[in-house]
Amino acid sequence: MIRCVSCGEKYNNDEIIYTCGNCGSVLELVNDLNIPKETFENRKDTLWKYKELIPVREDKIVTIGEGGTPFCKCDKLGDELDIDLYVKVEGSNPTGSFKDRGMTVGMTKAMELGVDTVGCASTGNTSASLAAYAARAGLRCVVFLPSGKVALGKLAQAMFHGAEVISINGNFDEALEAMTSLALEKYLYLLNSINPYRLEGQKTIGYEIVQDLGWSSPDRIILPVGNAGNISAIWKGISEFYEMGYMDSKAMMTGIQAEGACPITKAFRKKAMDIVPFENPETVATAIRIGSPVSYTKALNAIYDSNGYSETVSDDEILAAQKLLAQKEGIGVEPASAASIAGLMKLREEGIVDKGEQVVCVVTGHVLKDPNTAIEACTEPVEVDANIKKLKELLLNK
Ligand code: F0G
Prior knowledge:
Rossmann fold, 6-stranded mixed sheet, 4-stranded parallel sheet, binds ligand F0G
């Protein structure tokens, strides 16, 4: 069953519907939660090991092997901050971001429904993922990208997998509004995260974290927030496992936004349920350069219901955290992903994150998604001949 998160109106699973016909709010899938956790043990480590909890037909699955991403204990950084720190590395998914989790499920639903064209608006990663999964499924794919604001790696992926890429003169929010209108007029099947099937895939980040910790929830999960689908999805995953009695506590959901694009944090500070959109969002973390997040209701519910938190970080803090994670722990992430680490550092300093807390930071996309930003943060390599004497001098001078 599909249910409206605000008014509770119900729809059947095969209705092509993105928002509630009654009140206009966002929708979620309600699943049968009656599976013993042993079911998921000793299965191949992709998100489809949780197939009993993902409401699509098994014979239609479109997969490239998503999920089962690394869960890295980060003691160097954790010790400095006096916490027990883990990092969930979503850049290890097939196209290099967590979007693949949502896309494998969303594309499977598209196949079930028998659509011929899929589409999305994107700050980059969703389009890269959609393009790859559409190619695998053999469907036509149309993506709208905010002109000039998509990192190079993501643009390359979307184009190379054969999507019809349209550059919109406007920001992500405007591109999404246009894409949604076309979807409502049935030109295509919308695979942005307003589609509740996407979140059924992404909730498995929450499942995996709990299973990675030996069927226990961390104290806190910290992640970047843009369009606000992922924080909602992870909270759904945590809540479902909790409802089935797999663990006895739930993580505090902690959403980090960039200072120049932070409507959710602003609403949180006022304890509000509504957001005031940012007309001109701006941040170096282009993935989360979003002023009007569609899943804000779900995200704020997740933060309030979990006793969580929301904070902003500056572009400088994001870039410093990106470099720190790369050079201290060997984990290369794109700027938006580093917002979770920057946010952790700020919240630890503010005393919101307590000493000794067990914290999981979700890092959402691979460093190679945005090679330009990575290169700009480094000094150019020195160029010398392959002359051993000169090379020795160089090494000794360091
Ligand atoms: N991190 C990365 C790397 C992202 O690409 C995104 C969103 C987010 C975090 C935020 O997740 O939107 O669920 O709150 N990227 C979308 C896209 C908007 O089009 O690729 P969210």
